[in-house]
Amino acid sequence: MHGDERFGLDRKIRLLGPVKLDSGAEFAPVDFAYETYGTLNADKSNAILICHALTGDQYVASKHPITGKDGWWTRMVGAGKPIDPARHCIISINVMGSCMGSSGPASADPSTGGPYGMAFPVITIGDMVRAQAILLDHLGIGTLSAVVGGSMGGMQALSWAALYPERVRSAVIIASTARHSAQNIAFHEVGRQAIMADPRWNNGAYYGREAPASGLAVARMAAHITYLSEAGLTEKFGRRLQNRPDGTMGSKSFGFDADFQVESYLRYQGLSFVDRFDANSYLYITRAMDYFDLAEPHDGVLAKAFAATKARFCLISFDSDWLYPTSESRRIVHALNAAGAAASFVELSSPFGHDSFLLDAPEMNRIVDGFLRAGENL
Amino acid sequence: MHGDERFGLDRKIRLLGPVKLDSGAEFAPVDFAYETYGTLNADKSNAILICHALTGDQYVASKHPITGKDGWWTRMVGAGKPIDPARHCIISINVMGSCMGSSGPASADPSTGGPYGMAFPVITIGDMVRAQAILLDHLGIGTLSAVVGGSMGGMQALSWAALYPERVRSAVIIASTARHSAQNIAFHEVGRQAIMADPRWNNGAYYGREAPASGLAVARMAAHITYLSEAGLTEKFGRRLQNRPDGTMGSKSFGFDADFQVESYLRYQGLSFVDRFDANSYLYITRAMDYFDLAEPHDGVLAKAFAATKARFCLISFDSDWLYPTSESRRIVHALNAAGAAASFVELSSPFGHDSFLLDAPEMNRIVDGFLRAGENL
Questions:
Q1: Which residues are recorded as binding substrate (chains A, B) (predicted)?
Q2: Where do the domains of chain A lie, and which CATH numbers do they carry?
Q3: Rounded-to-integer distance, Cα B5 and Cα A313, Å
């Protein structure tokens, strides 16, 4: 693939599409922003698609252009890692609806020239996956050696196996679920209401003006709590107070400043998020996640979603993840078993809650490495 | 006490105070709004103080003047109930900082004539209790037969036993904690940031204008999720969609309306809350709760807080309460044991999370009834 301009870093392309959306509408043309690492082999059997989470992006193992930070999954992807450019042709695509270059509410609507805003169609996880399939066609990749994702990335991996059974040889689903629960929906609804309550949101028409940063920051703060465990927060912060500027341990201010370290941390999470994320994208992607229920089009029987799959599945959950608890992974494994699919499942122990899949987890790496290598030797 | 104007419904009184606050300041004069049910007996041995939760009030067993709803704890308080006006002289006081008639940020500041707003002092749970003691003095009540509370009411009951060991004969603490955890603080901080992000908040100076209703509604929505369990939300709403106006089961709107019943429920919780609660009070009371750590003034040793108490304690937790989980009640019981205090403890099973203490829970009623009667027969 050397010299193939379709591969490499910071790729952008507009494809005709259309994406046939679950809403019944069609969306076209479709912009894609993506990264690839490694080279597609001669028989095109080494392609791995990595799907990102709600606020993730295509910068899996390359520098984020806004934050300047390393890629979000360099612990899993890179030289000597389970997903290795030396062996794999790795593709990561900014999901449709997001804000890092793929079509989303901040993109220009060809019919008006201005940003879509709320005229962007409401999409689903399935729609994101159907869009990705169009890009893979363009890249000349028919079958994926593996599709890998954590959290919302896992929802996409499951949807890939369900929607394109002939194109997926294996799937790795980490800290994820086959449906959003009432509590999941509730937390997302709080975030959406926080954004829409910000007068600067202006029904989504804020591009070129001040963005609804306060609302988005509150949304991020609420969500961030769900990514961590109670025990993890206690270990990391407890009730410790902020240090004073002179470095001494602070005392209560008897005011509304961030007295506790956990308050300061949360405020920082909210404030730094608004620099890199679009509020409307947050609305659209949380909506897609809330709509996600892989069993729904199959009379509520999850096993039916996997009726045609021939893929091998690897599921990993974390015991302190209360956003997508182990019981949700177990439900998927039961459905895969019922569908006769090969599925391995491990619950790992970690104090860090849902975020564990993004952190240093040697056992997770060993499991993913073993699973991928076993597939390559089949 | 017949004809004693200090007792009865819808009582209001201004007392000189001052309340000596934990911040070092003094607060005076102090307004109290309170309800009493039943009659103080000749030896003044039948007084029970009921302490309310964050958004609760003095209308324990009488109609709320704004919502028109029955009192919030008629399941526990009333004729034939464990706390019975036929046997007990029941007092419930709107906490300092709140907005139902006791001194709070919406009250008139005597030094300016206008509302305090953010000039109201930041208070603690201990300050609320010290204020209550001033009112009990006025009522001629020296010793409480029992102090009873759930959630933040339990924090007050614990503080009563710690601050006034000679005035408390027994304490009932339900679904509560002796300290706010990092996660508790984090959720409250989200709520405060939501309020302060609302431009109508205007640094607390919104009285006589539009209140920061959007921010307060978001704060309430986020908090409300923590009052319910994941299982309870699933049982109550699952992924069910809103019915259409014609009564038929709805379908996805592919928009941002409340498609799911849980979204509609949460929005209603947020909207209805702002009609009855003041945003600044929400800031002050959540701050008081976050500051709460009964062990802190005792070198972190909770048992020392109970060194002087001679009270009997009854603790009840609910297995699905993840806001103040059973482990926090157990920690209190261990400290009481270490202090040599008499303590009984039961964890009850309920799918309804933290809110269980407000709901129909016959076992809770039997436990409280037995505990109070045993104390009256001592």
A1: 220, 355
A2: 11-181+293-376 (3.40.50.1820), 184-284 (1.10.1740.110)
A3: 74
Q: Which of B342, B288, B308 is nearest to B163 (CA)?
A: B308
Nearest Cα residue to A334 out of A302, A310, A297, A294:
A302
The answer on whether B198 is annotated among ligand-binding residues is no
Shortest CA distance from A227: residue in chain B: B183
Q: By the 8 A CB rule, do B155 and B172 touch?
A: no
Yes or no, beta carbons of B263 and A186 under 8 Å apart: yes
Q: Which one of A198, A225, A239 would you mutate to disrupt binding with B, by most B Cβ within 10 Å of its Cβ?
A: A239
Q: Is residue A356 annotated as a catalytic residue, yes or no?
A: no
Q: Which of A62, A103, A151, A159 is catalytic?
A: A151
CA-based radius of gyration for chain A: 21
Judged by CB atoms closer than 8 Å, whether chains meet at A122 and B258 is answered as: no
**How far apart are the C-alpha atoms of B350 and B373, rounded to whole Å?**
25
Taking the C-alpha atoms of residue B200 and residue B214, their distance in angstroms, rounded to an integer, is 9
Residue A345 identity: F
Q: Which residue of B has its CA nearest to A189?
A: B263
Q: Provide DSSP, A87-101.
A: T-EEEEEPPTTSSSS
- Kindly give the pairing relationship between strand A170-174 and strand A146-150: parallel
pLDDT in tens, chain B (378 residues): 557 999 999 999 999 999 999 999 999 999 999 999 999 999 999 999 999 999 999 999 999 999 999 999 999 999 999 999 999 999 999 999 999 999 999 999 999 999 999 999 999 999 999 999 999 999 999 999 999 999 999 999 999 999 999 999 999 999 999 999 999 999 999 999 999 999 999 999 999 999 999 999 999 999 999 999 999 999 999 999 998 777 777 789 999 999 999 999 999 999 999 999 999 999 999 999 999 999 999 999 999 999 999 999 999 999 999 999 999 999 999 999 999 999 999 999 999 999 999 999 999 999 999 999 999 877
Q: What is the complex's ipTM, to 2 decimals?
A: 0.95
Counting one residue from A and one from B, how many pairs have CB atoms under 8 Å apart?
152
A257's CB contacts (< 8 A; 6+ apart) are none
Catalytic, B281? Answer no
Shortest Cα–Cα distance, A89 to chain B (Å): 35
Residue written as tokens 């129909």? B360
Q: Can you list the pairs that A297-306 forms with residues at least 24 positions away whose Cβ atoms lie under 8 Å?
A: A301/A335, A302/A178, A302/A331, A302/A332, A302/A335, A303/A334, A303/A335, A303/A336, A303/A338, A303/A339, A304/A339, A305/A158, A305/A162, A305/A178, A305/A335, A305/A339, A306/A161, A306/A162, A306/A335, A306/A336, A306/A339, A306/A341
> Does A211 contact chain B (CB < 8 Å)?
no
CB contact under 8 Å between B194 and A218, yes or no, is yes
Residue carrying the six token digits 């010793």: B143
Chosen for mutation from B190, B202, B274 (greatest number of chain A CBs closer than 10 Å) is: B190
